[in-house]
Amino acid sequence: VHQSKLDFFCKLGYGKQDICKVLENLGQEALEDDVLKELIRMGSKPQALENQAQPSQLKLVARGSCSTTPGLKWLGEDESDASSSLRPIVIDGSNVAMSHGNKEVFSCWGIQLAVDWFLERGHTYIKVFVPLWRKEPPRQDSPIADQHILEELEKQSILVYTPSRKVKGKRVVCYDDRYIVKVAYEKDGIIVSNDHYRDLQNENPEWKWFIEQRLLMYSFVSNRFMPPDDPLGRHGPTLSNFLSKKPVLPEKQWQLCPYGKKCTYGNKCKFYHPERPYPAQLSVADELRAKTKVPLVPGKEEERCQCFP
Description:
two-stranded parallel sheet, alpha/beta
């Protein structure tokens, strides 16, 4: 009887130790319903239900991982595949704040707008560099608006103060632009600023290429942070590809020619002609020769002697 009941509840998924403990308390001749109630009262769960609760944790693995155990992660691996495919962001806090304040007021709200824009896109590494003396009370020659935002961003480990001190009453400020470019270069990220850093470009040739290729300019339109859709020009990458480590190439789509069969551009036409063999298109002169069925004369005599009826 003990073995039959043990096999029965084992098939239901309960552990042998819990079953034996309940049978010892209720007796070997206890009814199956009573044993089941006691197992539920003890908090024992079938192993099938316990295994169903675990996959939600095991699935939190970046796609493309080669690890045989899905629950394990390499040290330093990002939390999600989306965040790992986005480049780190380094924001020139002084440039953004002064731009939002119309170059008159150091507007901390502009920094918050820029940070929120990148957080909504899914960027996890965002650093803002601001000189340390901006923590001082505002003065008439350097007004600051919404200064409490700097404290909140510092608590979130987003804002970093560049060092500064006073020597004999004069403020000695470290060059914060060098911090910005250096961190962005080491992280292979994006610099958010409207400054071109020409002095740093002349200082280091590697920084020159990096600033030219990774500088993201912006504009504020009615308290809205707006970077351009084409950061490197009309023929450059899109904004999403510019901010991504793995750019996605758009599929080439052919656009129908608006002139249709009346087009006279021949193979120089950049549009698609369904009535013509693609991609080998004939030029206008070749089309006329094909229609008149006049043979081609090799050499320079073709231009002089070729005649059309």
